[in-house]
Amino acid sequence: RYHSTRHLVEMFWALEDLTDAGELTDADATLGRVAAWLHDAAYEPSAVVGANESASAELAETLLNRVRVDRGSVATVVELVRMTVDHAVRRDSALHRAFHDADLWILAAPEQRFDEYCGQVREEYAAVPDEHFRSARSRILRDLVGAEGIYLTEYGRTHWEGHARDNLD
Fold first, then answer.
1. Using CA atoms, how far apart are residues 15 and 8, in angstroms rounded to an integer?
2. Which residue of 2, 43, 51, 65 pairs with 47 in a disulfide if CB–CB is 3.0 to 4.6 A?
3. Model-level pTM?
4. For residue range 28-52, what is the model confidence (pLDDT) as tens digits?
């Protein structure tokens, strides 16, 4: 319900905002869009943690090698896809920081869209009992907020952080 083409389009919009703000070069923005396209290609809510990301990364590697994308670009896309398991981001990479922020843009969405997102995630995990879902989801969101904040780019911190904190509160 959430991990759909709408999520992909919203990531594209966020990556475009980050590129326009100078957070990404055009070349990195292209790799970010390719990684966004593939990062949830395999998505099964009942899968064990990391299985979806591993399957999506393997698919990305297979497809990109098949069309002869250079090894460095393939490795970068695969790394970005795998990063979405836990959002452990390479802080030394503008692309990694921007990809992280784009994937989490939804937390800063207008209130109506954010509420819709929450409902969509709940629908994806309909098989999980309410009490367990609430505690697990709260833990995930607390971990994303962290002590340093949600977003890692200057643009994200300036334009999205406040809205995201309001939504999460």
1. 10
2. 51
3. 0.93
4. 999 999 999 999 999 998 899 999 9
